[in-house]
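[job 0412] stage=complex_fold ligand=flavin-adenine dinucleotide status=START
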Amino acid sequence: MSVARKEVEIAGGGLAGLSLGVALRGRGVPVRVREAGVYPRHRVCGEFISGVTDDELGGLGIADLLEDAERHTSTVWFDEGGEVMRGELPSAARGVSRFCLDLRLVQRLRELGGMVETGARVEGVAGGREGLVLAVGRPRRESKWLGLKAHYSDLRLEAGLEVHVTGKGYVGLTGVEDGRVNVCGLFDRGEALGAGGRGGAVVRAVREAGLGELAGRLEEAEVDERSVTGVKQFLLGWQPRAGVDELRLGDQAAMIPPFTGNGMSMAFQGALDAVEPLVGWSEGRMGWREAVSMVRKAHRRRFGARLRWSWLLHGLLLNGGTRQVCLGLVRQGWVPFEAIYRRVR
Ligand SMILES: Cc1cc2nc3c(=O)[nH]c(=O)nc-3n(C[C@H](O)[C@H](O)[C@H](O)COP(=O)(O)OP(=O)(O)OC[C@H]3O[C@@H](n4cnc5c(N)ncnc54)[C@H](O)[C@@H]3O)c2cc1C
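[job 0412] stage=complex_fold status=DONE, emitting C-alpha cells
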C-alpha cells in the first residue's frame, strides 16, 4: 500500500538544502526548495572539499556529481618567515567551484522531481514551523573578518592546497575545474571591494595582510572578475539557540572556521543526518519536534568536538604571539600536522 507523504519545504538552496532535497527525493519524499538567489553563481568559498566520505556522498545520492572534481593530495603552508611545512594530506580532497557544483545539484534535484523556486526568499523563518527546513546559510552578523574569493588562471601552485597565514588573516589556494585556481581568504577588515577593480581588491587585501610575494603572483596571473565575491557578515561556531520547531542545517546550524576547509562537508553530513528523521515525519511515523530533536542530537554528536578544536586553532592561528609559537612547533615537526587535520574533520 502506498503511503501519503507530506512535503518538506527547504528554505535555502545551497549545499545543505540541495543535497538534502536530492536525498529526500531519492526516498520518494515531496520536496520544495525556495532559494533567494539564482543558479549558477559564484560564492565566497575556498571550494576545497575535505572530510565528507564517498559513502556519505553516496548516501545523499550525489557521489557521481563529484567524480570528476580535482583531487588534491598534497599541501604546503607558509607564514611570514617562509615555508612552515609541506606534506601529503591525510586523505585526498576535492576541488570544484560552487558555480559548477550548485548547478549540478539543482539539476539533479529537478530531474528527480523536486520543485526548486529561484529568486524566492522565504520570509519570517525565525522560530521555524512544521515541515520547514532552514538551510539559509550563515547568519548575517557583522564580523571582524572580510572573506574574499576569486578565480585565477595561469597561476601555478606548489601543492594541491597552498595556505598562507599572517597576523592579519590567511589565504588558501587550490585548483578547481578547467585549470582555474580558487584564491580565498579571511582578512582583518581593511579595504572593502571597490576602486581598482574587484580583482584589484583581492590583490590589495593579500598585500595588506603582509603577503607581498603572493600578491605579486596574483598580479601576474589572470583574474576572472566575475568570480570575485566578498562577505563580511557571518558568525563562527554553533549558532544562537534555536526554537523547538527550527530544523537548521549547514552554516545555519553551525559555521566552522573556514581555514579547516570543512564547512561544505559539514553541510553534506548535516543534511545526511536529517534524511531519516524527515522521511519519518513525511510518512507520519514521527512528530515534527521529535524529528528536529533527532537531527540536533546527531549534529551535536558529529560536530561537537570538531567545532571545539577548530575554534581553538582559529584563535591560536590568528593571534600574533600564539601563531608564531604554534607554527614554529609545526615547522620543527613537534606538532603532527596529520593529527590536527583529523581533529577538524
Ligand atoms: C571565506 C570562506 C571560505 C570558505 N572556504 C571553504 C572551503 O574551502 N571548504 C569548505 O568546505 N567550506 C568552506 N567555507 C564554508 C562553506 O562555504 C559553507 O560552510 C557552506 O557553503 C555552507 O553551506 P550551506 O548550504 O549551509 O549555505 P550556503 O551554501 O551559503 O547556502 C545558503 C543558501 O540560502 C539562500 N538563502 C539565504 N536566505 C534565504 C531565505 N530567507 N530564503 C531563501 N533562500 C535563502 C542563499 O541565497 C544561499 O543560496 C568557506 C566559507 C567562507 C566564508
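The mean pLDDT is 93.
[job 0412] exit 0
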